[in-house]
Amino acid sequence: MPKFYQCVLCKTYPKGNHRQTLSKIYSKILQQNFGVFASQGSTICNKCRFKCYIISKEKRVNTAETLRPPNQSEQILGSPPFVHLPLCSTISSHAYCCVCKRPGPKLIVVKTHARVSAYIGAEIFVPEGSRCCPNHIQNEVFNEEAISKMIPVKVQSTINKSGIMDMLSLMRDELMKQRKTRLDFDGDSMTDLDYATLTGLSKYQFDELMTDIHDVRTSKSRTSRTCIAIFMTKMRSSLSNRMLSVLFNMTKYQIRRSVMSARKALMASFVPQNLGFQHIDRDAVINDHTRPLARELFANDGKSPAILVLDGTYIYIQKSGNFQFQRRSYSLHKNRPLVKPMMVVTTTGYIVAVLGPYLADSKNSDARILNHMLATNVHEIKEWVQEEDVFVVDRGFRDSAEFLEDLGITMEMPSFLKRRDKQLSTEESNNSRLVTKVRWVVESVNGRIKTWRYLDKVLPNSQIPYIGDYVQIICALCNKFRPPLSTGTTAEDINIASKMKYLSRQNNMLKMKVEQEGMEKRSFRWKKVDCADVATNFPHLSEEEIRNITIGVYQVKMAKSYVQEHLDEEGTYEILVSDQIENMVSAQIQSRHTSAKKYMCFIQYEDGAITGWYCKCKIGARVVGACGHITSVIWYMGNVRHQSERPSGVRNWTSYIEDASNMPDVIDGSDSNDDVTTEE
Question: 551 near 500, Cβ under 8 Å?
Fold first, then answer.
């Protein structure tokens, strides 16, 4: 059976032709220079023996200098071969893991980098030659789990000169690495929260993004990963290049080149896979990205058309010195210069394509942009869209109705208020609610992409050529890494759609009653009372029941602000009641847009349920849900007033801002006693 001999210095097991017998001279050298006590005749490997030979040769060369008498100014400093330091340390056995104390045989030697990581992470010294399980090591250092499990068994450690020098050298390298860059996207020092705060993506999502990018090269100033991180940080935080240069320890010009390289790489490899009419087919949109609610509301005869929601968003820019471009980019609607990308999204919030950006003058309305898209077949949209598809749009697309009709595309749009009319009819208001129930998703998409703050700021004119690229990159990131904005189960959506379609065919009976009996006129007798004293039989409703009445959550959110303004300083909620009519209340709710307007609301109830409502606002005649004014009265009387604690409203900031309308009273000086003279 072969014998195994261990080297006294490096503790390895050299083979027969790689080991030597330790001489007396080399034994003394080991003791003086390495702190190793070994007797003559022990085993030493050829590599360690060569180290001893080099040391002995240097001593022979310096013998002449050591024999001459030293000058008075020279001092001979000596140090022991090894030192004892008050450092907690682990076990140094070869048979057991230094972390979990598990016995071998599948243990690996802990390298110097791992020993340094243990000291930095847990202030525990791992002796040289110690061993551990392979699963404790990741990227040649201890992982976080191993450092947390590491328990010291000694309160004192013995370190030789070479060990101290190695530790100091590696610690210096680590310190220099941290000084080189303040934000390190190449290492493991940053958490998921750090990644999400700086880039808008988690660490796992950022790693997945890097797998789709192949055209960014590593330079002397930054790696490919840092290049993408610089671009994402700029998009997310809208920091200037000078500020980013401080964070990434680079020059402003290196930051600018990194942003340009990342933009080109993302547009070349990442965007085509996640955005555009060619990256997804119609069947995927119809089957995977269309809510059953929208299909039930707008599809006819059981067909499955592609339902798309279109709207333009705004990217604000600086005023240009080119007067022609200044006129073409100025929006009379927003009263500021901007450009308009056209968003094409599904009813779940998935972005199919982003077209443009377009100019903002009167020649580039939403309707004209849509007509131009279809006429020029931009991005081959006409090959993707088919007859009987549905476009859900807002009123800005009204001039596209005939153009879409010629192509066989159905356009769903809210109704217009006719000239000299103050309110939409019940039918028009109901149909508008069917559209807004689906169309809100495109507004949420516009808000989602603006969470990357760079698109929400005023961009300099030098970035105008790249605005389209920036918007497309952010939209592709939303498609890849963000969940759907609008979801719902099939059964729930079908029930809601059936309810809305049924109600849309009904008339507002309470409106007819109010108009026939003249209840909104001043001649009709209403008296103002606090709701706490009347209408005791008004139904008690939970917020879920109120949402069933409104068929949505937006009106309930707005109701809280309406209620806060309607309450007086003493907490009284004033309503109107009439002795001539039972089971009906009324209220005058202040408009949130115009101070001079108050809307008259009427609510009818019976047998613990709300049976009708009518409001004098523009959309108040509908029966498919209720407006915010009606909802505020129902929410307060049916829910809030029965609770012991009133919900906190939106904070009023008026008291923190100066108001020039508060002028002091002018006192007539002639009434002052100081001007009165008496005769003696």
Answer: yes
For residue 303, give both structure tokens: 């067909």
Residue with tokens 């002995």: 56
Chain-centroid distance of CA 388 in Å reads: 36
Task: Report residue 127 as tokens.
Answer: 């002796």
Listed residue (79, 78, 91) closest to 157, CA to CA = 91
Place of tokens 């068994």: 153
DSSP state of 8: T
Q: Tell me the pairing of strands 315-316 and 336-346.
A: antiparallel
- Distance CA(487)–CA(490), nearest Å, equals 9
In contact, 599 and 626? CB cutoff 8 Å = no
Is it the case that residue 57 has pLDDT exceeding 80?
Answer: no
The pLDDT of residue 60 is above 80? no
Among residues 291, 343, 331, 657, the alpha carbon closest in space to that of 479 is found at 343
As a whole number of angstroms, the longest Cα–Cα distance in the chain is: 142
Number of Cα atoms under 13 Å in the Cβ half of residue 457: 15
| Residue for token pair 């994402």 | 232
Containing H/E element for 476?
A: helix 467-481
Whether cis (ω within 30° of 0) applies to the bond prior to 357 is: yes
C-beta neighbour count of 560 within 10 angstroms: 18
pLDDT tens column, 381-418 = 999 999 889 999 999 999 999 999 999 999 999 998 88
Q: What are the pLDDT digits (tens) for 207-262?
A: 999 998 888 888 888 889 999 999 999 999 999 999 999 888 889 999 999 999 99
- Helices 112-122 + 161-180 axis angle, to 10: 70
CB contact at 8 A, 132 and 97? yes
Selection from 26, 30, 2 nearest residue 16 by Cα: 2
Give the pLDDT of residue 488.
76
Nearest to residue 473, comparing CAs of 197, 191, 260?
Answer: 260
Q: Find the mean pLDDT for residues 331-339.
A: 92
3-state secondary structure of 158: strand
Q: Which residues is 575 bridged to in the sheet?
A: 529
User: Would you tell me how many other CB atoms lie within 10 Å of the CB of residue 578?
Assistant: 14
**What are the C-alpha distances in Å from 432 to residues 143, 464, 492?**
58, 36, 21
Dist. CA 7–CA 46, nearest whole Å = 9
Closest by CA position to 556, among listed 625, 653, 620: 625
